[in-house]
Design goal:
Mean pLDDT: 91
Oligomer: single chain
Strand content: 15-25%
Shape: globular
CATH class: Alpha Beta
Bound molecules: fe (ii) ion
Order of helices and strands: EEHEHEHHEEEHHEHEEEEHEEEEE
Strand order of the largest sheet: 1-2-3-14-6-16-4
CATH architecture: 4-Layer Sandwich
Radius of gyration: 20 Å
Distance between the termini: 39 Å
Length: 331
Amino acid sequence: MTTDRATVDGSEHPAGAAENVSGVEVKPVAGHIGAEITGVDLAGPLDDKVIALIRDAVLRWKVVFFRGQRLDHAGHIAFARRFGEPVLLPRRGPHSPPDFPEIETTADRLELAGRYGMERDEWLHRRRHTLLRGWHCDYGTRIDPPAATVLRADTVPPYGGDTTWANLAAAYAGLSAPVRAFVDGLRAEHRLGVGYQPRPGGDPYARRLLDEQVASVHPLVRVHPETGERVLFVNGYYVEQIVDLSRPESAALLEMLVEQAVRQEYTVRFRWEPGSVAFWDNRSTIHLAPSDHTHVGAPRIMHRVMLQGDVPVGVDGRPSEPIIGTEAGRW
Ligand SMILES: [Fe+2]
């Protein structure tokens, strides 16, 4: 199935040119996003040329998938480190491994709701202000959102629980020229808890949003620091308001842009198996966590390592600006 040592022919390896590293293949799975990489054992020694090929594939296809891997926590971190510096979260979920601060584990589907004293259904009801709400990049309210995420499936339900990603560079390119020119100069406020409807009479999550808010102003169109592509930096989860627009103008434009971003042609959906690994560029994609497996009654345990990112820059060269939280070391 996999090889510990890919034989390398020594030639150049432009993006997607899988044939240059023998035994390793990059197979696109959707028109604009997603590729499966085969013939590589992520737990084994990996030649620099294999790493370069994977990096090129992530930049080209935005998310890449590996199946049948046998990574443990240390191997997962070691693999991620070949591409950048792992993020160390000051607070992690209760299932995260204490000896591996680079890893965050999600295990209990009620975990987050329970932390705030709610059943999952109420929690979701209070959070889902739009149908596009679930789409997000990881930690996008920070001034320096993570550059990439490496997510590994430990235990997955027999059906349900797929993840979907959308290519924000393709979504930008698919806008009409006048709209591209219009959005190029705009900026938007990203914050935690957009649209959340608090419980009357005191709500611990609303309290946390006040006490531990993390918010930034990011360009609405980000220039990707590695590819130079323009990226439509929107999502339904964190984006509160387009700066300088009225609230109705902002709401209408954001709805149009998020719908554009998640058009089926810009997405790819992945069916997880134990040992599957997805590695995505968190700067040029958004993803949708699944919500179709909670009734299945089977655990879904996933381990994540994120890589540190830089401060986004707009088409006009202006960087993002922090509003609150990052300076206090919050995530
Ligand atoms: Fe996520």
